[in-house]
Design brief:
It is built from 16 helices and 18 strands. With 429 residues, the chain is α/β, with parallel strands linked by helices. The strands form four sheets. The protein has an eight-stranded mixed beta sheet. Helix 6 runs parallel beside helix 7 (144-160).
Length: 429
């Protein structure tokens, strides 16, 4: 295998040359000659505390300076914290469920969308309409109509020369990139199947305070409501499902699955999912995800081929192959993704990941539906067949409902019952 180069062992010895080259490349775009990259943020909660610093670091690696020119959030406390952190004037800070419309009136070139998943397709539509480049967090939707909408928005962005990247950092991480290149070169032969998993614990719970109305409780505690996050199979496990789609070069054609809930303390999501994802041509991927404390944890991907086996970002056992040299600017895939977003725009070669992330999100949703209902759910049911009961199935309130205040919290601890249809839910004691 040819040498694989990371920033750590490459830039150290050639820092001046790389800095000069990066600055030359980034200045190549016809419309971007300044040394400042203007960025706005929609959603100032926990996710943004990773995305914005990563964007700022990416600008530094490219010899640029990031300037945060606008912030939007539904709540003043989070807005104030972000404004202080990034030095943003109050006149450029907007609060409320329609604040995203106001922040898009700033002179930002790039926009990071880090709101709960239910809002992302709607916010992306507004970003593309405003003519700005987008970093949209994963997953990009909570239902099939949202996934299809993002795919269409990706086409519009391409026609307008706008970039879209998603928060799937594994596609930009040198370890996954290296293994993907080796598998493509035949290191393990044809992939026959594998396992993808995210088995961990519930990341956090936000309890309901007396002053909270239904809208605030749902958005503060969004991680634990299927309507807001798509359930953890969509919100979290999408990372591993995205790797499966990426390594195989296609999405699955159907899913059969099961799951359940016994211990979760809030919301209406499952504790675990187990899926058989059929990718066609005899290839099956076992998808498993769990959020339960006190259990064995495992996060990763494994593939078996006709001539060997490989982990997503670990050991490969198979043929010795040669691959082209891989060079990254950062060993952190989350930073590298931002680098490639910015560089692509300034070199007039904007990235567009709308379709791939929408398909990975739809893969998770297809799996969720198969587990909730106990049915075999096909890709066509979500993405191609308007007569399917899943095609136009939505998860509940819409972003427009939140803007208007027409939102009611679903019943706590009431979950889908497999075998009884998509509309039947049962109280969990």
């Amino acid at each position: 295998m040819d040498k694989v180069v990371s920033r750590r062992n490459f830039v150290t010895s050639t820092a001046a040359a790389v800095a000069a080259t990066s600055l030359y490349n980034i200045a190549g775009g016809a419309h971007h000659k300044t040394a400042t990259v203007k960025i706005a943020l929609i959603g100032c909660g926990g996710r943004s505390n990773r995305d914005m610093p990563n964007f700022i670091k990416a600008c530094e690696l490219l010899g640029k300076k990031a300037e945060v020119v606008g912030l939007a959030d539904a709540y003043q406390d989070r807005l104030d914290t972000a404004a202080q952190k990034y030095g943003v004037d109050k006149s450029k800070c907007f609060v409320g469920f329609e604040a995203y419309k106001q922040v898009l009136e700033t002179d930002a070139e790039f926009v990071i969308m880090a709101t709960p998943p239910i809002f992302r397709a709607t916010h992306l539509e507004a970003v593309i309409k405003s003519g700005k480049h987008a970093m949209i967090e994963k997953p990009v939707a909570v239902d099939a109509p949202g996934c299809r909408k993002v795919i269409e928005l990706g086409k519009k962005a391409k026609n307008k020369g706008l970039a879209i990247v998603a928060g799937v950092q594994r596609r930009h991480d040198i370890a996954w990139l290296t293994n993907k290149a080796q598998i493509d070169a035949g290191a393990i032969g044809k992939i026959l199947g594998g396992t993808v998993s995210w088995n961990g614990t519930v990341p956090w719970i936000w309890g309901r305070e007396q002053k909270m109305d239904d809208r605030e409780y749902l958005t503060r505690n969004w991680l634990n409501w299927s309507e807001m996050s798509g359930d953890h199979i969509t919100e979290q496990h999408v990372h591993n499902l995205d790797v499966a789609n990426w390594f195989l070069g296609r999405h699955p054609v159907s899913s059969v699955g099961f799951g359940g809930r016994a211990r979760r303390q809030t919301g209406n999501q499952y504790d675990f999912f187990s899926l058989d994802l059929d990718y066609g041509d005899g290839v099956h991927i076992h998808s498993q995800c769990r959020q339960l404390s006190g259990c064995y944890n495992r996060v990763g991907e494994f593939f078996r081929g006709t001539k060997g086996e490989a982990f997503g970002n670990g050991k490969i056992k198979g043929k010795d192959v040669k691959i082209p040299e891989i060079v990254v600017d950062s060993d952190d895939g989350s930073v590298q993704e931002m680098v490639e977003l910015i560089r692509g725009v300034y070199n007039d070669k904007p990235l567009n990941a709308a379709q791939s992330i929408a398909e990975s999100t739809a893969t998770a949703i297809m799996g969720r539906y198969s587990a909730y209902t106990g049915l075999l759910v096909q890709w066509s049911d979500l993405m191609q067949n308007p007569k399917s009961k899943f095609y136009n199935l939505t998860s509940g309130a819409t972003p427009e409902d939140f803007e208007k205040g027409n939102v009611t919290v679903p019943l706590e601890n009431v979950v889908a019952v497999p075998g009884d249809g998509i509309a039947v839910r049962r109280k969990i004691a």
